[in-house]
Amino acid sequence: MSGFDPKKVDAVVLVGGKGTRLRPLTLSMPKPMLPTAGLPFLTHLLSRIAATGIERVLLGTSYKAEVFEEEFGDGSKLGLQIEYVFESDPLGTGGGIANVAPRLRHDTVVVFNGDVLSGADLGSLLEFHHGHSADLTLHLVRVADPRAFGSVPTDENGRVTAFLEKTQDPPTDQINAGCYVFDRKIIDRIPRGRPVSVEREVFPALLSDGVKVCGYVDATYWRDMGTPEDFVRGSSDLVRGIAPSPALPGDRGEALVHDGASVAPGAVLIGGTVVGRGAEIGPGSRLDGAVIFDGARVDAGSVIERSIIGFGAHVGPRALIRDGVIGDGANIGARCELLRGARVWPGVELPDCGIRYSSDV
Ligand code: GTP
């Protein structure tokens, strides 16, 4: 195998989406910047890119674009050269790729959705792409239940044979993992100046045009962080070391408590819980797979399971929040119960016992 020089690869990370499924958290911060195991989510991905030896990264921004540059600047802290390519009107995933074309310097371009947590070996992916002389290589991951995703079958030579929408009866457990290696010239075929979806429009068109599209298949850690359920799970997996990240230390534990946070005696923190900077956790509370953003407060005796508590939000005593999202600065009164996907918008005040799913107050 000839190998490749990662310095001759441009990385493109798409971070311009509005992240509607993660509202209300994404009202104040773009999804790839949400704190995940104590770091902006994107830091985990950028560290992976840097660890592969790739140096040049173009961030395709749109929604809340300025936040990215404030955090990452020129990229030197991560050992990268980061440039920003802004879309005033979001162009979709395909349009976002086409929009960076004038700024590309290399013939090999690896594109990432900016909200995927993955353990794929990027060096192997690039070697596969070159070894197969592909025009486009998709990272495909095997998942236990492919029905919720588009499935992408390949033939015995690794060539993609179809792009199938979600179906109850997928012919393969290989799904599109949101990471692609393009030969530079293929990017020029993406329609310009209008929104384009890479998954729904560009890939099927390339396939029917006879472009050599290959699939690099693995079964490493993979999670699209697009929903609260996945965000909570991915964060917990990062904390516990189940999800890999070169940005975090090798040995990780059951919970992560950040500087300036206070955890009262008798509070139980398990399941990959994260407590953000300056957050306060009261005595006798139980946090299982909880994501507590900076400055939030959880009072005595509360139970938080698989839920996100936004910046500066407050959960009163003996509340129960399970599979919920509490927006920044919201105030949840004592003994409230919020279950099964409940979302509280920023700044909302719920009085004591204001919402319950049971009668035993
Ligand atoms: P939802 O609104 O919840 O679907 O989230 P999203 O807007 O992030 O869309 P999706 O999860 O499908 O996007 C996958 C990745 O592509 C994310 O990292 C997005 O930030 C990014 N993305 C989505 N749309 C655009 C766009 O129009 N332009 C750019 N540059 N990136 C985009």
TrEMBL record:
SUPFAM superfamilies, alphabetized: Nucleotide-diphospho-sugar transferases
Group of enzyme by EC: transferase
Presence of keyword Nucleotidyltransferase: yes
Highest taxon of source: Bacteria
This protein's UniProt keywords: Nucleotidyltransferase, Transferase
Nucleotidyl transferase domain segment(s): 11-238
Location of the Mannose-1-phosphate guanyltransferase C-terminal domain: 253-346
Enzyme Commission number(s) from the entry: 2.7.7.27
InterPro entries reported in the protein's UniProt record: GMPPB_C, Mannose-1P_guanyltransferase, NTP_transferase_dom, Nucleotide-diphossugar_trans
Family, as annotated: Belongs to the transferase hexapeptide repeat family.
Keyword Transmembrane helix: no
Protein name per the record: Nucleoside-diphosphate-sugar pyrophosphorylase family protein
GO-annotated molecular function: glucose-1-phosphate adenylyltransferase activity
Matching Gene3D superfamilies: Hexapeptide repeat proteins, Spore Coat Polysaccharide Biosynthesis Protein SpsA, Chain A
